[in-house]
Design brief:
Blueprint (H helix, E strand, L loop, with lengths): L7 E5 L5 H14 L11 H5 L8 E6 L3 E10 L9 E8 L8 H15 L4 E7 L3 H9 L3 E12 L2 E11 L1 H4 L6
Parallel strand pairs: 4-5
Antiparallel strand pairs: 1-2, 2-3, 3-4, 5-7, 6-7
Length: 176
């Protein structure tokens, strides 16, 4: 199914979205292209993300309902890092490549800025060109490479480290 850009609606995720988010996340786990997770999750595990500390957004379409999401989570426990969040973005298979991920990331960036976060970071598989292109297109920069970061199904995988400065941290930040 093809979606025009106006067919999406982004909003803050609600606990009731945990089941749809679980289905989408489990597709990502099965595909082995975006996460080191290997065990499917159940809705109660996704529901645990809803502790109110970090933004989570969903993208809806008619008539499919939730077709994607982006979620932020804790980066590190030290107080100095309190304004940094890790993020992930997932799109249901049949809607990939149609702007859902972009809509989710733009909504997450805005939500994180509203909450006072100053940076979003993540790691992306080197060969995940679609995610790398998406993130670059919404203002992330690739800052480094973790070689042999972890194994997935017995094979070493490298990941690209990405970041985007937000709010005050982004103002007049020198380009690196």
């Amino acid at each position: 199914m093809s979606y025009p850009a106006t067919a999406f609606r982004c909003r803050e995720a609600r606990l009731v979205d945990a089941s749809a988010m679980t289905r989408i996340y489990n597709e990502g786990i099965e595909d082995r292209t975006a996460t080191f997770e290997t065990r499917p999750r159940d809705p109660s595990e996704i529901a645990a993300w809803f502790d109110g500390s970090h933004p989570i957004v969903v993208v809806e379409s008619e008539p499919d309902g939730v077709v994607g999401f982006a979620a932020a989570s804790s980066y590190r426990q030290r107080e100095a890092y309190s304004g940094i969040a890790e993020f992930s973005v997932y799109v249901v298979r049949h809607a990939r490549g149609r702007g859902v991920g972009r809509a989710a990331m733009l909504a997450l960036i805005a939500a994180a800025e509203r909450r006072g976060f100053w940076k979003l970071v993540s790691r992306v598989f080197v060969d995940n060109e679609a995610s790398r292109h998406l993130l670059t297109s919404v203002g992330f920069r690739e800052v480094g490479l973790y070689r042999r970061h972890a194994r997935l199904e017995g094979a070493w995988r490298d990941v690209i480290i990405v970041e985007r400065l937000l709010g005050e941290a982004a103002v007049d930040a020198p380009d690196a």
